[in-house]
Write a structure and sequence with these properties.
GO molecular function, one term: glucose-6-phosphate dehydrogenase activity
Number of helices: 15
Structural class: alpha/beta
Pfam families: G6PD_C, G6PD_N
Family: Belongs to the glucose-6-phosphate dehydrogenase family.
CATH architecture of the largest domain: 2-Layer Sandwich
Protein name: Glucose-6-phosphate 1-dehydrogenase
Strand order of the largest sheet: 16-15-14-13-7-12-11-8-17
Helix content: 25-40%
Radius of gyration: 24 Å
Low-confidence stretches: 1-16
Keywords: Carbohydrate metabolism, Glucose metabolism, NADP, Oxidoreductase
Largest sheet: 9 strands, mixed
Number of domains: 2
CATH superfamily of the largest domain: Dihydrodipicolinate Reductase, domain 2
Length: 507
């Protein structure tokens, strides 16, 4: 079955869409790590705040042979583990547990699917219910699961499907996944989730750019020297080794998270923030990225892999040891230089890097402005440095604007770098919701603004494809870097040859 395509006027994409009164939230992979660690705690927090529709049911679907009570016990244990104790209110916990059901189903077989049909159809106000189907399962099951949903007749105009990354392994497989899901759900019903886009600091980037006038005249190649985007982790691959060794850092992080952050920095102002406008502008950025030739890939990309070292004072094993393998050529680190070829950004390099087992855990965007064109304070101690806007996505969400100021004191002028700080934790006297909390509620409302559209996903894969191809044919293995360091030396050289350096949080 295929539902008609949506246009930008479809009410399902309206940023002002209201919460429906009735919702059935079905999680495929309902006993998996993502569901228990992120999704169920996120739904708990929204229920605690009274943001879930009053008539909401949460249906966990998995291959585990447990009944409703067994599932509620698992979720209770997950809440106790992943929710702050101070926020565990017994009444709210019992309310969420009372919403839960569990069904034992396998997407590879036709058995048992009638139970899901019966559960979704057997409810008061069934015609008013929004149905959310969250695919927290392996990507190979995205298509078959959607086909089963169509076969049992539970996909209607008020149904939505959520897909976790990765959407495919390359451009071809991404198209296959999108075709399979798109044969059942219209594009306006498909929510491709990137949890980075749900973080408060990322959303605040849009507000900072478009609700304040002082930055917009400077947000271009005339005043911006370059942009850096960093997502570094201190952890290794952990239990994700099997998946990660087939993906690598470029597929796992750059193709989605980092390119999405780049889009939000570089996009043109939309007419307003809502419906398809933001996604239209992000697509234009992806389409404007300078295509990379093999020579560009050799010069402007660095891939690395961690070896044994010290992380936060403790010994950390190598990537191969974490895998339990003798050898692997999968990259755990990527640094690259990109350029957006349009009027606003022509000539401004965007430096992206991400890696595991690095020296710090941080996700940040740094916009580095050009240095003052003339030294106005001859003989002054110190010097005027380039202004920088640091946008910290995690762990301490906030912004810092780095300026040059005069140090107080008589006699002469001493220049000193200072910063204007915005910390969400100290500025706003309220808990900052986790990314999934915002995104799950946007799915229920039908607001697609913070989700990736099909053409965005495929444009991103098209841009990284030459990198993947070149690395595949290159005999040179990833450069090794000790765990607990900023990555391979070649990543620093990538900027140094342009007369620049990576900006660290404490600089």
């Amino acid at each position: 079955m295929h539902l008609p395509s949506s246009t930008s006027h479809h009410p399902v994409g309206d940023v002002s869409a209201t919460m429906p009164p009735v919702c059935d939230f079905t999680v495929f992979g309902g006993t998996g790590d993502l569901a228990l660690r992120k999704l169920l705690p996120a739904l708990y927090h929204r229920d605690l705040e009274g943001h879930l529709p009053e008539d909401t049911r949460i249906i966990g679907v998995s291959r585990s042979e447990i009944d409703d009570e067994g599932y509620r016990a698992e979720v209770r244990a997950a809440l106790e583990r992943f929710v702050e104790p101070a926020l565990l209110e017994p009444e709210a916990v019992e309310r969420l547990l009372g919403r839960l059901h569990h069904l034992c189903l396998d997407a590879d077989t036709a058995e048992g699917w009638h139970l899901l049909h019966g559960l979704l159809k057997d409810r008061p106000r069934e015609d008013d219910a929004v149905r959310v189907f969250y695919l927290a399962v392996a990507p190979r099951l995205f298509g078959p699961t959607c086909e089963r949903l169509a076969e049992i007749g539970v996909v209607n105009e008020r149904a939505r499907v959520v897909m976790e990354k990765p959407i495919g392994h390359d451009l071809g497989s991404a198209r296959e996944v999108n075709d399979a899901v798109g044969s059942v759900f219209a594009e306006h019903q498909v929510f491709r989730i990137d949890h980075y886009l749900g973080k408060e600091s990322v959303q605040n980037l849009l507000v900072t750019r478009f609700a304040n006038t002082f930055l917009e005249p400077l947000w271009n190649s005339q005043w911006v020297d370059h942009v850096q985007i960093t997502v570094s982790e201190t952890v290794g691959v952990g239990s994700r080794g099997g998946y990660y060794d087939h993906a690598g850092a470029l597929r796992d992080m750059v193709q989605n998270h980092l390119l999405q952050l780049l889009c939000l920095v570089a996009m043109e102002p939309p007419t307003y923030v809502g419906r398809e406008n933001v996604r239209d502008e992000k697509l234009k950025v992806l389409q404007a990225l300078k295509p990379l030739t093999p020579a560009d890939v050799d010069r402007d990309t660095v891939r690395g892999q961690y070896v044994a070292g010290l992380v936060e004072g403790e010994r950390a094993a190598s990537y191969a040891d974490d895998l339990g393998a003798d050898r692997s050529d999968t990259e755990t680190f990527v640094a690259l230089k990109a350029e957006v070829q349009n009027w606003r950004w022509a000539g401004v390099p965007f430096y992206l890097r991400t890696g595991k087992r690095m020296d710090r855990r941080v996700s940040e965007i740094v916009v580095v402005f050009k240095e003052p064109p003339h030294a106005m304070f001859p003989g002054a101690e110190g010097g005027a440095s380039a202004n920088r806007l640091h946008i910290c996505v995690q762990p301490d969400e906030g912004m810092r604007l780095h300026l040059t100021a005069k140090e107080p004191g008589p006699g002469g002028i001493r220049l000193r770098p200072v910063s204007l700080d915005l910390s969400y934790a100290t500025t706003f006297d309220q808990r900052s919701p986790e990314a999934y909390e915002r995104l799950l509620m946007d799915v229920v409302r039908g607001n697609p603004t913070l989700f990736m559209r099909r053409d965005e996903v495929e444009a991103a894969w098209s841009w990284v494809a030459p990198i993947l191809d070149r690395w595949e044919e290159s005999p040179e293995p990833p450069r090794r870097y000790p765990a607990g360091t900023p990555g391979p030396f070649a990543a620093a050289a990538l900027l140094e040859r342009d007369g620049r350096s990576w900006q660290e949080t404490d600089q």
